[in-house]
Design brief:
The protein has helices at residues 6-23, 30-37, 43-47, 51-78, 91-111, 115-128, 132-156, 162-180, 189-205. With 207 residues, the chain is mainly α. Helix 5 packs across helix 9 and helix 6 (115-128) crosses helix 7 (132-156).
Length: 207
């Protein structure tokens, strides 16, 4: 039996992510993944023996992409001295402005350019209620997101507590669900920024 091809495996996982976004979890089958990836019949079964295996592969691919992009984005942000919160009486307001800038850009990108990825995440979250294996992979995504966000706040000197980070994360996830489940043409950049500012001010007011 030939050794698995990592490039083909990623292509199959990417196809599964796209199908989850476009057709929902009920539209995810080995044959639909093969058709989407334009590979011969039976290829997906060789890599993923069960439907749960397809779901797990899609989740693992999303985790892989998210971690790589988060590390790159964090590196770019912390290397910009203008992003670091200043000391003194203006620190709190400067922190709010910095976080609104960063989170509104992130939420806009997630709701538009990365829309399919997060539609797939929400489909996977529903499926994970019946699959401990899938839930464990999605748990890694949540942990990676939380850890990278805590590190970002530390590097920027925002003085956000872990509770504040958790609150912002929950608000962000709810806002993202609302945005990706409405028609994309109804997603307005100014409205996204206004929403994020309310989220940030509310979360930091509780700190």
């Amino acid at each position: 039996m030939p050794r698995p091809n990592p490039h083909r495996r990623r292509a199959l996982a990417d196809a599964a992510v796209t199908l989850l976004a476009q057709r929902g979890a009920h539209g995810l089958t080995h044959r639909s993944v093969e058709a989407r990836a334009d590979v011969p019949a039976g290829t997906a079964t060789n890599y993923f023996r069960s439907r749960e295996g397809l779901l797990v592969a899609a989740a693992e691919r999303i985790v892989e992409l998210h971690v790589a992009e988060a590390e790159r984005a964090t590196g770019e942000v912390v290397s910009d001295p203008d992003r670091v919160a200043p000391s003194g009486p203006g620190r709190a307001e400067a922190t709010v402005h910095t976080m609104v800038d960063l989170l509104s850009a992130s939420l806009w990108t997630a709701a538009t350019a990365l829309r399919d990825r997060y539609l797939a995440v929400f489909e996977l979250q529903m499926e994970a209620r019946r699959s401990p294996r899938l839930a464990a992979v999605l748990g890694r995504l949540e942990e990676a997101t939380y850890s990278s966000t805590v590190r970002l706040h530390e590097d920027l000197g925002t003085l956000a507590t872990k509770d504040t980070v958790a609150t912002l994360g929950a608000l962000y996830a709810g806002a993202l669900f609302t945005l990706v489940t409405r028609p994309v043409e109804q997603v307005d950049r100014a409205a996204v920024r206004a929403l994020v500012e309310a989220m940030v001010r509310g979360a930091f007011a509780r700190a």
